[in-house]
Write a structure and sequence with these properties.
Strand 2 and strand 3 form a beta hairpin. The protein is built from 12 helices and 9 strands. The strands form 3 sheets. It has a 4-stranded antiparallel beta sheet with strand order 2-3-7-6, with helices on one face. A 3-stranded mixed beta sheet has the order 1-4-5. About 50% of the residues are buried. It folds into 3 domains: about 110 residues, Orthogonal Bundle (Butyryl-Coa Dehydrogenase, subunit A, domain 1); about 110 residues, Beta Barrel (Butyryl-CoA Dehydrogenase, subunit A, domain 2), CATH 2.40.110.10; about 150 residues, Butyryl-CoA Dehydrogenase, subunit A, domain 3 (Up-down Bundle), CATH 1.20.140.10. The longest helix is centred in the middle third of the chain and has 37 residues. The protein is α+β, with helices and mostly antiparallel strands.
Length: about 375
C-alpha cells in the first residue's frame, strides 16, 4: 500500500498552504466580531480569491483526494471560509453537476467556479431536522408552474447566496424515495424571502440564515435534472459528499489546534524550561498528532473509495465523519488544556477553534446517526454471512 501523495498533490498542498497563510489567514479572526454586512463582504471576497487559485473549480471536479489535500490547508487557517466554499461548490455545485440538466450545468457551474455566483442547499427545517419525513415544504404544480411554500432553517450561505437547491414534497403520498424533488431557485425568484443572519457559536464567518418560500413561483426548468420525485436519491449522494467535506474540515481544525499548541509549548516557560518538555504537555501533543493523522488517513480512504465507486463508500464516509468530528472536539479540548487560562480568553485562537470544532458533530448527521448507520452495515454483513 502506498500512502505517499503524488507529486501533483504535494505541489497542490504546498501551493494552497502558502496562499491560505498569506491571503486568508490574516482575516480569519475578524469574522468573529464583524457586523453581518462586513462579514458577508469579506466572505464574498475570500470566495473570489479562492476562485482565482482554481480551488472552487477543484471542488466542482472529480479529484476528491486533491479536494481533501487542498481543503485541509484552507480549513486549517479559516474553517468558516472552507465551510462557505464547500456549501457553494459541493452541496450546490456538485449536486447540479451530477444531477442537473445541461442547461442548469451550463448556467450555474461557470459562475460558481469563477466566484461570480454563490450556491446554497436548503433542506433543514426547524420542526423536522434530520427527520426528512417531517418536512413541510411543498411544491405544487398549478397551471403549468410550480408553487413552493414552506420555511427552511439553518441554511449555510443563505445571506450571500445567489441561488439555492430546495428540497420539497411534490407527492407526499409517494413517500420519501419517490415523493421528494429538488428545485433550483434563484435568489430573485418571486416569493423568496431571506431571513436575518443568525448568530452562531462558532464558524461565525460562514453566513447562515433561514429562508421563507411564500408562493414562490418557478417553471419546469427549476426541477433539478428535470426529474420530479428524484430528490431522495440526489439528497443521499449529496450527504456522502458533504460527510467527506466535513471530515476535511475537522482535520483542518485539528491541525490548527496542533499548530497553536506546539507554538505555545515551545515559547511558554515554567520552572525555567519550555512547557512542551513536561511529560503531561508532551503527551497531549502526541495524542493530538495521533488523532489528526488517523483522521486524515480515514478521510483519504473514504475519498478513494468514493472515487473508485466502492460498495463500502457510504459506510467509510460515515466512519471518517464520525471519527474526525469527535477527534476535533478532543483535540480542541487538549489545545485548551495546553494553553491553560490564556486559551480560555475571548479572542484567543484556540478559544475560536474550540467553538468551531463543535459544529461538525451536529451537521450532516449527528454522531449518533452515523453510529447507527455503521452498526446497521455491520449487522447486514453478519446476516448475509
Amino acid at each position: 500500500m502506498d500512502y505517499e501523495l503524488s507529486d501533483e498533490h504535494r505541489g497542490l498542498q504546498a501551493e494552497m498552504g502558502t496562499f491560505c497563510r498569506e491571503e486568508i489567514a490574516p482575516g480569519a479572526a475578524l469574522f468573529d466580531e464583524a457586523p453581518p454586512e462586513e462579514a458577508a463582504a469579506r466572505m464574498r471576497n475570500n470566495l473570489k480569491k479562492l476562485a482565482g487559485t482554481g480551488f472552487l473549480n477543484l471542488l466542482l471536479g472529480g479529484d476528491l483526494l486533491g479536494s481533501c489535500v487542498a481543503g485541509e490547508e484552507l480549513a486549517r487557517v479559516c474553517p468558516s471560509t472552507y465551510l462557505a466554499a464547500v456549501s457553494s461548490s459541493i452541496a450546490f455545485g456538485r449536486t447540479v453537476k451530477r444531477f442537473g440538466t445541461d442547461a442548469q450545468r451550463e448556467w450555474h457551474l461557470p459562475l460558481l467556479a469563477a466566484g461570480e455566483g454563490i450556491g446554497s442547499f436548503a433542506c433543514t427545517e426547524a420542526e423536522a431536522g434530520s427527520d426528512l419525513a417531517g418536512m413541510q415544504t411543498t411544491a405544487e404544480k398549478r397551471d403549468g408552474r410550480w408553487i413552493l411554500s414552506g420555511e427552511k432553517d439553518l441554511v449555510t450561505n443563505a445571506p450571500i447566496a445567489d441561488f439555492f437547491l430546495v428540497l420539497a414534497w411534490t407527492d407526499r403520498e409517494a413517500g420519501l424515495e419517490r415523493g421528494m424533488t429538488i428545485l433550483v431557485i434563484d435568489r430573485e425568484a418571486i416569493g423568496v424571502r431571506i431571513g436575518k443572519p443568525l448568530k452562531t457559536m462558532g464558524l461565525r464567518g460562514a453566513p447562515t440564515a433561514g429562508i421563507r418560500l411564500e408562493n414562490c413561483t418557478v417553471t419546469d426548468e427549476a426541477i433539478l435534472g428535470g426529474a420530479v420525485g428524484a430528490g431522495w436519491g440526489s439528497m443521499q449522494a449529496l450527504l456522502e459528499e458533504m460527510k467527506l467535506a466535513l471530515s476535511v474540515l475537522c482535520v483542518g481544525v485539528g491541525m490548527a489546534c496542533m499548530d497553536e499548541s506546539t507554538r505555545h509549548a515551545k515559547t511558554k516557560k515554567a520552572f525555567g524550561k519550555p512547557i512542551g518538555l513536561f511529560e503531561g504537555v508532551g503527551a497531549k501533543l502526541a495524542t493530538m498528532f495521533t488523532l489528526n493523522d488517523l483522521g486524515r488517513m480515514m478521510t483519504f480512504r473514504a475519498a478513494w473509495a468514493m472515487e473508485q465507486g466502492e460498495a463500502e463508500s457510504a459506510v467509510l464516509t460515515s466512519c471518517a465523519k464520525l471519527f474526525t468530528s469527535e477527534a476535533a472536539g478532543k483535540i480542541a479540548d487538549l489545545a485548551m488544556q495546553v494553553h491553560g487560562g490564556h486559551g480560555y480568553l475571548k479572542g484567543a485562537a484556540v478559544e475560536r477553534l474550540y467553538r468551531d470544532a463543535r459544529f461538525a458533530q451536529l451537521a450532516y448527521g449527528t454522531s449518533e446517526m452515523h453510529r447507527a448507520l455503521i452498526a446497521k452495515d455491520s449487522l447486514d454483513r453478519f446476516s448475509a454471512a
